[in-house]
Amino acid sequence: QQLRQAIEECKRAILALPEHSERQKDAVVRLIHLRLKLQELKDPGEDEPNIRVVLEHRFYKEKSKSVKQMCDKCSTIIWGLIQTWYTCTGCYYRCHSKCLPLVSKACVRAKVSHQAEYQLSICPESGLDSQDYRCAECRAPVSLRGVPSEARQCDYTGLYYCSSCHWNDLAVVPARAIHNWDFEPRKVSRCSMRYLALMVSRPVLKLREINPLLFNYVEELVEIR
């Protein structure tokens, strides 16, 4: 409460002091320090456990203080200097300590372990109405008009996601590669990006069964065969 009162007094002082004066600049610096201190109290990190298990994620508390990351849950910056944050050792999902209880998506590595296979249809869209105009992951309302939130399509799953679950990350889509020999990166959701990254080295594509005609057109495949 004392910190909040000091912040309000500092804001009033900044407005009252002559613009661009040294005293006003000093007051602005003091305001920043007070706000950081308040944030630190809101997000205590010393008593946090080093390991947290949530929905098959195995989260480890990060020690780095200087690296600036983005939280996969709330899509805001993780300030390592004053905030506690965790990274999943399986799928590299990262989030604030305060966001851990809100994580709703299971670890992608579990899916890779239990169901190591690709979606082999090219962008299998079924329409936003089939999703009840909600994000495929967090179920937040979305629309193509951007109200209340922009619907972003994942080129791998064909589903639509909100901007918190789809950051316009780019990845090579396996279906396009094996059907059209197209390796141009496409926009995919965060979940799809992590899944594709974990699957990239797994020998799960039986190319001669999936698309044998490809060997007639791609010289490198003929040499490998």
UniProtKB/TrEMBL annotation:
Pfam families: C1_1, RH_dom
Keyword Transferase in annotation: no
Gene3D superfamilies, A to Z: 3.30.60.20
SMART domains listed in its UniProt record: C1, DUF4206
Superkingdom assignment: Eukaryota
PROSITE patterns attached to this UniProt entry: ZF_DAG_PE_1 (PS00479), ZF_DAG_PE_2 (PS50081)
Gene Ontology terms for molecular function: zinc ion binding
InterPro entries in the cross-refs: C1-like_sf, DEF8, DEF8_C1, PKC_DAG/PE, RH_dom
Family named by the database record: Belongs to the DEF8 family.
Function: Positively regulates lysosome peripheral distribution and ruffled border formation in osteoclasts. Involved in bone resorption.
Name of protein: DEFI8 protein
